[in-house]
Model the fold of this input.
Amino acid sequence: MESILSKEQKEEFKDILETLGESLDITQTQYDNLTRSYKAVGEFLQNDPVFEPYKPIVSPQGSLRLGTIIQPINPNDDLDVDLVYRLSEKNPMWTQKDIKDKVGARLKESNRYAPMIDKKEGRRCWTLLYRDNSDNPKEKYHMDILPSVADSKYVERMTRLFSENFSAQTVDQISIRITDKEANDYAISTHKEDWLKSNPDGYALWFAYRCKADETVKLRAEAVVPVEKYNREKTVLQRIVQILKRHRDIMFYNDTEDKPISIIITTLAARAYNGEQNLFEGLLNVVDNLERNITKNERGEDVVSNPVNPEENFADKWPAHPKRRENFYKWLAAVKKDVHEILNGANRIQIQTIMGRVFGKDMIEKASSLLVERRKSKLTTGAALLTSAGKVAASTVGKVINTANTFYGE
Done:
């Protein structure tokens, strides 16, 4: 569908989208509290004498790692932070269960962390409920800690990736093996090669590659070695993912159990993204092409393959939970319809009314107010509203994160 917006209306839409993305970002205060907390728990876990010989490190994964984390719709809801607790090798006799139990035992030794542990032990993670067990009202988050094992050449391979072209084969070298209570060999197998494979570092590299920012090498480096700095600058692709996730959250506010999961949205958006440096054009292209990146397996089931682990299907739960598949395709149709409806709005008021419905009235009002203030500032000071060439900003994958001690734990 061709947009009937004028050039000026397109600019208006682009500007509102960019300020919407900024409004979705976590704040400096949230960032400071998150990083302070996970550095503290990371240091506590890294100093465990049981694991010390295996150079443990704790680092973020998921949306915090990718720079696509967004505010919850309800300001009183928790932020969800994913951490990886990575060992370089392990005791040859340890099973998945041994490692997960030992991480849990370490947390239970602490007067601070023991009360925070979620009584319902996760399938793969230990969850710390900061919100439920803190006197600090700003600690509105919980942390999922995933125990894992890499091999002894992990650091060497990570370093070598800086000078190699991206490929699924090269990033597979930095994959890790994780604990999974539902695995048949969970309490039996001592061979980590038999354990479930994951690759959060490889996925971060792939996502950075898909961002196609000007500073490609720098972007790749920051995806692997996070920078200890709060930075709200984002690439176009990061903003697109944030906006799509917000649309999803509004649409499924009352059905959080079966809403489309972020990893599927992020993967499909990154595959559809074609390097657009204008947020307006990038969002339009992505919503029109999300579905093209869903394939079928030999059983006719939907497949959203992990780009750095093709054996993994992010949609593998859909056959057992058909409501999730149904909701995903409902969301897909809705987001496409809504974006085109916005693009074909007759005037600014109509555009903002539609955007308020699909992204949240409060958030759009906040974004619009921010836009007005910036334009006033531009008129009075002559400062540029955006960076050159219409870009949202320079690369930031990894900038809204940092590590406990150094990334490699050395």
User: Anything to note?
Assistant: Residues 322-343 form the longest helix (22 residues).
